[in-house]
Every structure is written in structure tokens, then in C-alpha cells.
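Open question from group meeting: does this chain pack into something compact, or does most of it stay loose? Before anyone orders reagents, we agreed to write out a predicted structure and look at it together. Recording both the input and the output here so the notebook holds the full record.
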Amino acid sequence: MYSIEPFLAAVSGQDTYLDTAFENHISQLRQNLIQEYHRTQSKLKNTVLAQDGFWADRSFPVLSILSPAMISHEGNIEYPGDPVCLYAGISKMIAGVLPSFQYPFSDQDQYLTHCPQLGHLPDLPYRLAQGNSTKRSIDQSWDKLNTDQTVFDPRAWNAESRQQLRELLTWQKPVIVMISSVSCAHRYALAIAREIKSVLPDTVVIMGGRHADETVSFDKKSNLVSYSYSSTLRSILDGRSTPDVDFIISRDGAYCLDFLMKSLSLAYDPDQGRIDPAHIEPALRYMAANYGDVRGQSLITWLSPQGPKAILFRGARYTLSEVPHSYYAFAIRAHFPIFMDDSGAVMRTAHVLTTDACPYQCSFCSEGIGVMGRMNKLSRTPADTMITRLKELADFGAQAVFFDDSVMFGGNMAAMRDFSVQLTALKTRLRREGPAALFTQEGFQTEQGAANLSDMQWGAQLTGEFLSTFQDEAQGRDMLSVMAQAGCTYVYFGIESLAETVISRIHKHRDAGAKMRWIDKIRTSLRLVKSAGIQVGSAVLFGLDGENRDTIDETIDGVAVLIREGLLDLASPNIMTYHPGTEITRMHQMENQLDYHSDSHDVRPPYSYFEQAFPGVVSKHLSEDDIWYIHDRTSAQWGTVRNSNETTRYEEDNNGNV
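C-alpha cells returned:
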């Protein structure tokens, strides 16, 4: 573990700002921009033209990228979803930019000088015209694009997507690029950063996402910021990666990114068309001194010429109701084939979040509160917030919704029931009176939006114990009945393993050794869900503590029985991989061995048949023969119920590099 003291603990008014030269520079630059804005307005009687013309001069291009988690030469990735974590992470920043476009230099304008070129939210015709392709159609100048068109979302990293990125960079010339990455995608995030720097060396690259959250932390006792072996910064310092990433954001990133973008905007040099490196630290200090009340707990890290530096934010907590939802600035493209309309067509599916962590602490999981530190939720009336958001999503074209939380509403039964009851009542009114009669009254923008919600299906993730242990069977059956009435057609949860000797070691079978075996909990939960007429999918995880061929067979055969009994509609086999921040990674002493940085990693079958499975980061309890065995036996025993990852492929050049 590598640790440093924070360069700055940002609290507004508590940092003494001494760089008067920079402060005068900002003041003069602002005055010049204001004068230019007024001159433009006086020259052009058309206010819209004046505003657009000035916007092109005041703003600079930015680009957001979701790092893919796999390599494929076909680009045909099964069950593609929308990058909601990327969307959620940058939406607060986008909301902060919009007043700069709409009301330049007014009290609502949050930027002092220049600002990112994010001026238009996508309108309804644009949103509704999008299919399931992640490629954005761009047919106009960059300063006229909407926010959805400033995202590059490759579903695989290969020669084709690399060329697409290079063409986009050459045309757009972004001043700042933001990359979101989970751990299994980090090697490709570094490769993307390398491509960016090879085309545009002066572009500032910001990295965020789950990998940064897991690998950068602040210890209150030592007052040190620490970087694990797998962290972006540590891999650069050790020489395992080239220094192509300029800033890393971790933990509560929404307000933190907003702060960083405003700081970098102060350092923008319009004559050079880039961020002036000499002005970056003065800008950060200026913002911390004057606007340092950044909400949430977060860190900004960068590698300065003097070495690694970090800014620590320990602001007030915020709820997810206080930041824009994931589709605020982006179109819904996902089509999840578990949701089908009466004609058999796959429904457009919005992925939503009600929390940003899981309340449980399973030893293998990177989403647990033990890894993330704490869990941000919706407001004190989460059901009300979600109903309001569903109306807007329905207007945006959503026909179905999947709750991507590890546990819906963080396991808050009252919120789940309240949401389901409210949604049922709203659907009943719309069906009784008709969408045309009620859409305005009920808060929809369009009649079609009201119709979409009237027929909306939805699904959620729960846990096996939540339905069978944390409440009695009657309560579970009643809850599922209420959910089904509200349109819930799919529930997904983790079986993980059906071997008692394995499941008892991972903090998931919470009363292991008590009266109820894990298989009994799972069977009870599945029967409850199926009795409500709801489809069930489940994840099965191989390679946990205590795993061997006998326990592998016990799980595969046990799941096969559940399938034959009609209790499982979908079963997804997975290989346990070591995430940097999890308990099992520490237990197995793998913290300093994980390779999430080498872009030439050998991703081949059988690893490529499983999501996130790479040699060097999979469970030490599994050999390559074991992984082949799991692939072959689950395919044979589970049949069409098995969710296969076989669309994932890999390709090599003549030197054998992926």
C-alpha cells in the first residue's frame, strides 16, 4: 500500500489563498468574456444566434467514455445495458453546466470563465429515435451536439473501436476526457487513455468509477490517502503503466467531478485550446478556498511534477434524490430480453438505481458497504422520488425498468411496498381513464409516456435470504404479490453456491448452522417468487472459499434440479474474480498480485465464456481445467436456461498479443 498526506483538505473559507496573480488573472479573464458576450449580443439582433455564437467561443469540447470490460471482434455483446454508472457520475456536472449556456454570467451561471461544451439536453424526438446501438450519430458541429452525443460507449475494445476513437478524437479534439471503469475494464481504460494521449497529448484525462473507488481510500486515524497495488496511480508510479491518466476521482464522485471540472475550466487557455498545466494547482486552490463545500466524501488524486497529490473532501452527505437520475442527459438504448411485449418484441429498458452500494458484506463482492464505506440512498420518501422518475423515463421511451441495485431500495421493505402500491394505483387510474385524459394531470410530458407507464414491466434484484429469512413466508408472499400487481415480472438474486461448506464462509448464509439450510432458503425463495407469477434469474459463483470438484458438482447438480422443478428461468454461471477491495482478496493474499493493468493479457477460452474472468485475477481455488469443467457441465446440465457469455471473443495479432 502506497500512502501520502492530502495536498489539501478542501473546506470553503478555511484554505488561505495567496496567489493574487492568478486571482487577478481570473478576474480579468471573466471581465473580458462578459464584455465579449455583450458585444456579441449587440451585433446580432437574434438572441439565439448571439448566444450560440458566444457559446462556441466560451466553451471547450469534452468527451465521456465507458471503458468496455471485454474484447470482441464481433461487437455482438449479449444483453447490452446502458452505462448508468457513467451517466450517474457525470449528470450532476452536466446540470451545473447548463445555466452557463442558457443564462451566461447570470446569478445562475456556476462557471466563472470558460466551461465545458455541454449545452443541450437531448429533446424527446431524439430520445425516442434511438435504437439499441451504442453508436451516436453525429451530423453537425461539436458545439451544436446534445449531451448524449458527447459519450463514446464501445462495448468491446478492438481494432474497430480503437479506430472509431481515434477518428472521434481527431474530429472533436476534446480538451478533457472522462473515463469510467470497473476493475475488470481497467486494462482497457488505460489503453483508451494511451490512445487519447497519442492523438492529443495535451488532453486532460480523468479516471473514475468502481475501480478507483476500490483502490483509493483515506484513513482517518493516520490522515493518509492510500493507493492499493491495483490503483491507477500506483501502476503508473511502479512503471507498470504509462502516465496517461491525469486525475483520478474516487468515492462520492458526483459533486467532486463538478468541482474538478470548474477548477480545470479556470485553467483553460483559449489561445492554446488546452488546460494550462501551470494554472491547475492555483485553480484547485482558488476553488477550494471559495467553493470548497463539496458534498459527500471523495478524493481527487493527480501526479504532479513534485509527486502524487490529493484533495480530500469531507462534506455533508447527500441523497440520490438530490442529483439527476442516470437518463437526465442521455437516451435510453438498452433492450433487456427478459421484458417482452404482447407481440414478442423486446422492450426498451431503463436501468435505475435507488442506492449506490449494497447493505450486505459478502466477502467476494465489491458493491458491499464494507468496500464502499457507506451507502447513499434516495430521499426520506424514496417511493415518491422513484414514481416521479418513472414518469419521466416513460416519456423518454422506457417500456420497462430494471432496478440495478444489489438489493432494491437497499432492502427497505416499507419503500418497496410503498412504491408498488403507488405504481399500481397510478396504472389503475391510467387504464381506467385512459392516458389521453390523464397524462397532463399526472405529470407526464406526453400521452405516449403515460401509455408506456400504464403497461410498464419491471424487475429487481433481491437476495435469497431477504425473502426466506428476514421475514416470514406469509410476509414474503404478500410482498411479492404486491410487486406483481404493480408490474414486476422478473426478480434476480444470487444463489452463489449450493454447497453448505462453501456458502457458510462468505457472510451470505447469515445463520449458517441454524435450522434452515442454504438450499432450503433458496428453494423457499424461488417458490415464493414463482407463486406470484414472477420470472426468476440467478447468479451462481464458482471458486469461493472451500471450492473443489465435489462442491462444484453439488452446485451444478443442485441448480439443475431447481431448473427441472420449474423454479429457475435463467441461471448465470460466473467465476469468482478478485476485486481489489474485497475481503476474500485480502484473505487469499492477492492484493499485490492482481493484474488489472496489462493490455496484452491472454483472454481466451475458457475464461472468455465468463464475464469478468481473466487469467491472473480468478480464484486460486480453480485451475483452468476446473473452469473448462464448469463451462462444459453447466452447458450440459442447465441447457437453454443457462445464460451463456459465448458471444465474447478475443483476437490476437501476429505476435500473439490480444
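Observations to bring back to the group:
Residues 73-79, 645-658 have pLDDT under 50 and may be disordered.
The longest strand covers residues 488-496.
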